[in-house]
Amino acid sequence: MFSVQPFEAKELGNASFLVADPDAKVAAVIDPFRDVDIYLTHAEKLGFRVTHALDTHIHNDFVSGARELKALAGTHIDPLQPDADLALGSFTLRALHTPGHTPEHRSYLVLEQGQPKALFSGGAVMVGGTARTDLFGPASATRLGLESLRTLQVRLRGLPDEIAVYPTHGSGSFCGISGGAGHETTLGTERLTNPYFMTTEVMQFLARILDQHRYPTYYEDMGAINTAGAPLIGRRPAPPKKLQAGDVAQLMKDGAAVIDVRRGVDYDKGHIAGSYCVGLLPGEAFSAWVGWLVDRRRKIVLAGGNDRQNQEAQRQLLRIGFDNIAGTLDGGMEAWEASGRELSTFETAGIEDMARWIISGEEVTVVDARDDHEWGSGHVPGAIHMYVPDVPHHAHDIPTTAPVAVHCGVGYRAGIAASLLEQAGLKRIIHVNAPYEDWAGRLHLAETVPT
Fold it and tell me: Is 156 found in the same domain as 21?
């Protein structure tokens, strides 16, 4: 009997899996993250040996931990060819070629006594979705879209409904749109409810799978990093170095990026001018946003967090190959002020503030930092649409005659956008830290973009 232990990287919307034979004490890790201590600690606790590491595809969103496992535990990392079997105790893993998300994509079928029991599907099957096919550019997106359709309708056709499915990509992943939370489902459930399984007409399927949200720019070189192999970081990287305020100021002059990991409302009360407001919050894509906005070659300083938060931020950044972490601001904002340096502040606005401005016609420039799909589903009349990653390039288009109030869907991305507006030189910035649906829907202010 096999067992499955998921390991989630919620900031990426991903999961990896340790599949084991508890009796034989052997295990394999499917799609391992780079911080492999999570698998080794779990395996050691149960007395397992991690003998193999298998990636379902060349990842664009995180660094594979397969090389780390090989270096630390002697794990075999040779990829299985399509239809090849790997015996692991009492069960077998069979590699299935399931292209679509990527050309080489494999899913791993668990067989017990020759019978299919589970499928580690990577991005081929997600809960309520399937992974995007446009990561290699528009020229191949349609071809891979057709491969995805064939994978769902033909390549997986012979598998029974009752087998468990464990997808790597899930809700919150920029690698695809998932219709549900979690990293476990059944093939039968997906066949009945997943719109990608249910859409069999070619043009309709392509229209659906090609209509994707934008993805972070760090994806563009991640495939090459995984192909070449990222530098080894060891089982437990040393905690970030603690830096004095003067050191941080000099690093900023030299081009370092300061990432403030606090909540947006705390950032608003006092922060280092020119820093990035990217909160290390549950359920938010901390590392993906850093990877979208900061060149991986820049040095990074973490600010505002305690030791535990700084180490978690480091872990999440190492997962995406951002290794150039110079350290953390020791003592936080208090130390910055104590050194004689000023803190910058933003006004924080809520539902009542937005209602007052709009109803009274008060002179405020509203910037909507949501993505194109969200904007198209409804927005405040007169607002300027500027998705977060576009702010550094188009902030100069925003009128500066009135205060600028920036909002998003909840408030998290608005905080990021506000910090980018400050970097662009804007002075009167208001961070709207309130759910868009609460104030726009209540006031019936949202207009929909014609389609």
Answer: yes
